[in-house]
Amino acid sequence: MEFKKKYVYSALFLALLIIINQIIIQYLLFQKRQDANVINIAGRQRMLSQKVNLMVYKVYENNNYDTKNELMLVFKEWKKSHIQVVELNDKTIIYKNNRERIKEKLKENFKRIEEVEKLLLQEKNINKVQL
Fold first, then answer.
1. Residue 70's closest CA among 83, 59, 85, 81?
2. CA end-to-end span of the chain, whole Å?
3. 83 and 75 in contact (C-beta within 8 Å)?
4. Residue 61: which domain range?
5. CA 57 to CA 33: how far, in whole Å?
6. Pairwise pLDDT comparison (114 vs 8), residue with the higher score
């Protein structure tokens, strides 16, 4: 009878360990999914900033009205992506220790984005824009 009790207690203990293990793993996976989301949006932001640069060059070379409209659409996406990164930065655990420094860098970048936006909106002829 005692062997049976030990067997039952061992089985319950193992089941409890497996449940605790799964809770910890699921929690960590959830955090990693949030981090991956921030990384994906930041990568998209980088791609969009490069696309804005390329399109400014194309507008400079061709002075095409359709390209100017497309440039403004891409620029708005770029700005929106930056805002998403700023908002998600507070919710994630990436670089927890450097969060304030990252916030300051993101604010600096946003100022640059706003400067570019002013130039794009003020200039009727993008050929004159010096970015």
1. 59
2. 83
3. no
4. 37-128
5. 36
6. 8
